[in-house]
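Lecture notes, unit on protein representations.

Consider one protein chain, 508 amino acids long.
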Amino acid sequence: MTREPENGKIVLEARNVTKKFPGVVALDDVSFQVHRGKVNALIGENGAGKSTLMKIFSGVYTDYEGDIFLDGKPIRFSNTKDAHKSSIGIIYQELNLVPNLSIAENIFLGREPLKALGMLDYRHMYQETEKILKTLNLDLDPRTRVSFLRVGQQQIIEIGRALSMQSRILIMDEPTSAISDEEVDLLFKLIRQLTKQDVTVIYISHKMDELFRISDRITVLRDGKVVKSFDTENVTADQVIQNMVGRPLKDLYPRTHTVSQEKMMTVSHCSLRHPTIRNKFSVKDVSFHVNKGEVLGIFGLMGAGRTEMLETLFGLHPTASQVDMWIDDAAVKVRHPKEAIYSGLGFVPEDRKTRGLVRIMSVMDNINLASLKKSERAMFLQNRLQDKQAKEYVKKLNIKTPSLRQMVDNLSGGNQQKVILGKWLATNPKILLLDEPTRGIDVNAKREIYALIDDLVKEGLSIIMASSELPEIMGISDRILVMAEGCKTAEFSANEATEELVMKAAIP
């Protein structure tokens, strides 16, 4: 039957929607109303069902129970093209670009402009892309291959592609997870412009400050069910968090460890040449140390060189870098990740999906991947030993998985991150390098990661953590090293640091 929209305010609605996967009920009788011309925020822990519902709205999942209404009329998409034709666009949390194609080719992928004889109209494509990039304040050549861009720039391209489709319902799944504060301001300005033009936005984020800054309504999902919906102006952050996790969340940043005065690692004159610009450095002459049982936070805005420096320490750029390094007072030379692991380093990368995990492999296989020698006997891998090690870290890190054989791609983002941590802890590292370790995970999963970091440094592990979230760096770090344009610009103890001082040092 046709369901009349409430005074024309409800543009999209899920009614009694249930979606099941093998062994998991992702959505359980969910009803969710999307208000026209508003920013409708959807929030919940990882695994709550947010992305699943959005994939139903965007035509990715077509097998589900319940009904979807668009403008009051029942609709069932057969594929993503059906959703596009209905003017529903989506920006995924995980990047969905083709690395070997240009910016312009990615933006117009699947709807390329053609000339009269059926040839691609590249001139028109580049002209339109230039306009979109200008709107996004992104100074890039439309011909630039996407693989040359950093994660944050790729995220902006995703946004540009969705905006280019002139969608009247725009789904944004963690759109700011890898972009700078300046780019967030630009995005929010664009969102406000769009809603004034009667475009409807569904906005998924784990960042409370963003939700209260940009949303008109907030709906909370927990364990696949809608808990409650609020008008943003009538609710507090504490109330939202309590509905998300089912209890008040206190002590987000636990700090019960004591830092040793013993130096665990010293880095001197770390430099990395820029991959494409001659005589330019992504990291330039950075020196620092980290003590045993200490969390050293690395803060900087996009392009500061945080990721590049961690990659250099882990041996990912041996021909383009130069660094002197000592671990436990012994000089080490790291020219390959294998040498980094042997020297006592572990590295949790920023992009867990493409660089941290093998998504088609099981939880057990991923945990054992960096420490296979421990499970080897007479040149053969022993399943019994792999099973034992995986069980140890699933229990220690409280990884929620139906079994060790579960494909890791089916886990929530927070549990995937714990699998990566387990993989590197299994190598018995002395220093753990963490690059944006809580990117794209919910507030409760973040707290679990922070508590784990606190436990690990209490055991004597040293942690170097890069993050673009200033409250996170301020909350978890014993010392903070600030970078801008590849250079170290300041260093503060936890007691000395203020948000104003750190941000001032981060702005070039």
